[in-house]
């Protein structure tokens, strides 16, 4: 009685599909672009080069953005000024 798998004959010759999968897995390196992504988190802009980023950081547009964020941060809501006052008036006895 033989309980051998039917695919035993393919042991030497690799399945073409399997071969393709392996080639695909090993052929394409899973390394992303080595070039670091330079971006300005304030302005949500990405740059292709460091010099570009530098120029942006020195630019007026970026400065204005930063200023705007700082002012909005340092300034609390006007409505939250002071603790809420209880509506308790001197009731007539
Ligand atoms: Zn910026």
UniProtKB/TrEMBL annotation:
Record keywords, A-Z: Metal-binding, Nucleus, Repeat, Zinc, Zinc-finger
Keyword Nucleotide-binding annotated: no
SUPFAM superfamilies: beta-beta-alpha zinc fingers
Biased composition (Basic residues): 84-93
Signal sequence extent: none
PROSITE patterns assigned to the protein according to its UniProt record, in alphabetical order: ZINC_FINGER_C2H2_1 (PS00028)
InterPro entries for this protein: Znf385, Znf_C2H2_sf, Znf_C2H2_type
Gene Ontology cellular-component annotations: nucleus
Domain C2H2-type: 40-62
Any one GO molecular function term: zinc ion binding
Ranges where the record places region Disordered: 53-93
Localization terms from the record: Nucleus
Keyword Metal-binding: yes
Pfam families membership: zf-met
Protein name: C2H2-type domain-containing protein
Species in which this protein is naturally found: Synaphobranchus kaupii (Kaup's arrowtooth eel)
